[in-house]
Automatic annotation (TrEMBL):
Tagged with keyword Lyase: no
Protein species of origin: Streptomyces roseicoloratus
Keyword annotations from UniProtKB, A to Z: Metal-binding, Zinc, Zinc-finger
PANTHER family listed in its UniProt record: RNA POLYMERASE-BINDING TRANSCRIPTION FACTOR DKSA (PTHR33823:SF2), RNA POLYMERASE-BINDING TRANSCRIPTION FACTOR DKSA-RELATED (PTHR33823)
The organism's place on the tree of life at top rank: Bacteria
PROSITE patterns, sorted: ZF_DKSA_2
Zinc-finger ranges (dksA C4-type): 123-147
Protein name: TraR/DksA C4-type zinc finger protein
Domain Zinc finger DksA/TraR C4-type: 118-152
Keyword Zinc: yes
Transmembrane portions of the chain: none
Amino acid sequence: MAAKKTAVGVTTAGSEAAVPPARTGELAVRPGEDPWTPDEVDEARSELQSEVLRLRSELAHSREELTGLMRDSGDGAGDDQADTGTKNITREHELALAANAREMLEQTEHALERLDAGTYGLCEVCGKPIGKARMQAFPRATLCVEDKQKQERRG
């Protein structure tokens, strides 16, 4: 069977297992940037995988905290207004932390999917390279600086 070049530049041959594009060092970079090395790709993948584990652990802890807060909230009988208010604030704070951790987990898992697909480092709006330095500083980035600034001005 003849080898063929896929959309992301990975050469595959017939029935052989395709190498994940991110292992090839062919991730997008901006003009003038050095290409991604296999070690840099592995480091990005490892950092993202560690972040997934940390966030999943944080979410499990939040679930336990919220379960305890809900169990202890009862009907508030016997609590004064300050105690009830404190419990509500604590519960709302824990809910906000859990929502933030869930969002970060989704972003991190999305970054790993993009790494596997070979689209890591490409802006999801304009399709241009985000920039290797930006991806190394913020591995969950999905927008180039220009599109991120446009988004922030709108929102």
